[in-house]
Amino acid sequence: MKYREQAAVLNIEEIGKDIFSLVLQTRQIAQEAVPGQFVSVYSNDRSRLLPRPISICEADGESGCLRLVFRIAGEGTREFSRLEPGDRVDLVGPLGNGFPAERAEGKRVWLVGGGIGIPPMIQLDHVLEEMGAAASVTAVLGYRDEQFLLDDFTSECVIATEDGSAGTKGNVLDAVRERGLKADVIYACGPTPMLRALKAYALQEGIECWLSLEEKMACGIGACLSCVCRSTEKDEHSQVNNKRICTEGPVFLSTDIEL
Asked: Could you identify which of 10, 104, 117, 132 might form a hypothetical disulfide with 23, taking C-beta atoms 3.0 to 4.6 angstroms apart as the criterion?
């Protein structure tokens, strides 16, 4: 189920350079959201017709609170960064398919986030803790330099930074190899080069790997076909190797897509 709501802004704060945490009060969206889904947020500026897709960072079904963490990437997200408590925001969600948390049962799990792909891993981390079914959960987080959201994870965090200012100098796989980490299931969200490397690593090591793709979207509901990715199998109706990230994703089994 997806809903269109006028959500009230409860809190907004800058948690890193041009990175903002926005907490909204919703009626239905937070109750229905699962880790890995996203919402489409509409601008109040009529000249910007298309909504901006933003991953869900946290969702509290009981209180209806929905937390979004985003980076300013253009005028639309810049507008959202200027919101104040009491303002109202038009949004649709929850959208897309999320992470299959049930695949973690009895397994060693990595939650791999890179940059602005880190926020959606927080809700998954909390859900896995509530389930208590995974053998172990490790968050492997990659930053360019400045770290954010570290205190929001309940699992052990392993850090990689490009400039070496914290943790392992390099990328998330450099951190994995340096620490000798092992996994049975990988859940990941981040830039395409990181996901491509994780897919290759998981294939080499025989690890089940689920990837959340970052992509520009227009409609967010599968109608415009602006966010298709290459799939390894043909669609039985269209007979083309394409999948829509906004509806059939954003989370895919790594062996089902080409990067």
From this structure: 10
